[in-house]
Amino acid sequence: MDTFEAKYRAKYPQAVGCLLKDRVALLAFYDFPAEHWQHVRTTNPIESVFATVRHRTVRTKGCLSHKTALAMVFKLVTAANKTWRRLSGNNRLPQVIKGVRFRDGIQEKDADQSAAA
């Protein structure tokens, strides 16, 4: 990021300023295990499910009561569930939930652990 700033600050000061302002959020990606990167980067599972539901409910227009709309949404989400991929590195989820720190996708060792070793 520092190299990028040095190279492009003079030519694109506003763009570089914007990226540097959001630097922490942009690089938060690397605070997760490397196995999860493809999922963090490429998917939005909630939006993809809602897109399917939205596509179908818009097509049916006003012929739905609240009860039938709820049943249709349930069936659509259940059908979409069959095509979901399993999370790569799902064995790392307990570590992420516990707050274990990762740096560049690799688990950081605590100072206490490295001193004891």
UniProtKB/TrEMBL annotation:
The domain of life is Bacteria
Q: Which UniProt keywords apply?
A: DNA recombination, DNA-binding, Transposable element, Transposition
Q: List GO molecular-function terms, semicolon-separated.
A: DNA binding; transposase activity
Any one GO biological process: DNA transposition
Family, per entry: Belongs to the transposase mutator family.
- Purpose: Required for the transposition of the insertion element.
Query: Know the name of this protein?
Result: Mutator family transposase
